[in-house]
Amino acid sequence: MPSTTIHFVRHGKVENPDHLLYERLPGFHLSGSGVRMARATAQYIAQNPQLNTVTALYSSPLERTRETAGEILAQLNAQRAQRGQAPLSLIADDRLIEARNEFRGTRIGHGDGALWRQRNLRLVSNLWKPSWGETYAQIAQRVSDFADEKIQQYQGQQIIVVSHESPIWSYRHLLETGHPEHNMLMRHTALASVTSITYDCETGRVLSIDYADPAADVL
């Protein structure tokens, strides 16, 4: 029974001194800590024989995910060079992008531009079913479409996908519960964590879901 494993990696910590909700805004890069997180996860992947034989690396098109993926790519390609294999390339896919959010550009805190001003709060009606942008169903569906495509494209293989907290958790919650709606405060997707999902290629059935947090101790 051939299987495909997709390793979903969340990006590392972002440099954000003004505490903005950056969503899909350009110009938000990994912080120094975020780079160290990405390198810790890259090392974890490169040293793990169950992970370092991946055949493709995908990423959301945003800077923070591409930079995290770049650290992973560097370590994997160093190993591939030692084995005489051709290097991998990073492939961007819009289906992996951060959730659309009407709060983008607002600031966590108080004063002008703060998220908690009344005009923003009226958009929050239910934490389980976002009213401030993409629904969890929409987010999970685009990740599901991506995964279904790659399960068939990479039968018997493994790939790495670098994305964001909301897409990864909404999709995982859909697989585990049958619905993507969840309390956003209860997500289990740490920065630079790895959520590995293995599928039966013939049926698409999920065989296992594993989770690792290689950057948990990075400061």
Automatic annotation (TrEMBL):
One of its GO terms (molecular function) is phosphatase activity. GO terms for cellular component: cytoplasm. SUPFAM superfamilies: Phosphoglycerate mutase-like. It comes from the Bacteria. It holds the Pfam family His_Phos_1. PANTHER family: BROAD-SPECIFICITY PHOSPHATASE YOR283W-RELATED, PHOSPHOGLYCERATE MUTASE. This is Phosphoglycerate mutase. It comes from Bifidobacterium subtile.
